[in-house]
């Protein structure tokens, strides 16, 4: 499985640790983020990962900025993206099981690396349950076509 990762200047160090963590788990990782700590604009990286996920260039995406909020908002503007911001593992797991999220976001200024790893593992190990949830995901995705 191929995972795209994006970040802004506030999350360079965390991104590097997350990339190593994912690679150690056997995932292929594509870096769409900045490697510089100089101030930059997080929407650029949210959009890059969002477009890569929507196009099928990567299977899933992970985004990191200061809070995870801004970068996820940018990704969610891309048709086909269902990005979620999570600061704990339970919501990450349920976002995959019930909402079939394809991008996970979190904040480097909100959580530490060990919690980030727990959140990532829960998210990656969860599977979409379909059924009644598919109807709701379809409803969410139909909004972008209105």
UniProtKB/TrEMBL annotation:
It is an enzyme of class 5 (isomerase). Its EC number is 5.3.1.6. Pfam families: LacAB_rpiB. The keyword Lipoprotein does not apply. GO terms for molecular function: ribose-5-phosphate isomerase activity. GO terms for biological process: carbohydrate metabolic process. It comes from the Bacteria. The active site is at 65 (proton acceptor), 98 (proton donor). InterPro entries: RpiB, RpiB_LacA_LacB, RpiB_LacA_LacB_sf, SPI_LacAB/RpiB. Keywords: Isomerase. D-ribulose 5-phosphate binds at residues 8-9, 66-70, 99, 109, 132, 136. PANTHER family: RIBOSE 5-PHOSPHATE ISOMERASE, RIBOSE 5-PHOSPHATE ISOMERASE-RELATED. NCBIfam families: PRK05571.1, rpiB, rpiB_lacA_lacB. Belongs to the LacAB/RpiB family. This is Ribose 5-phosphate isomerase B.
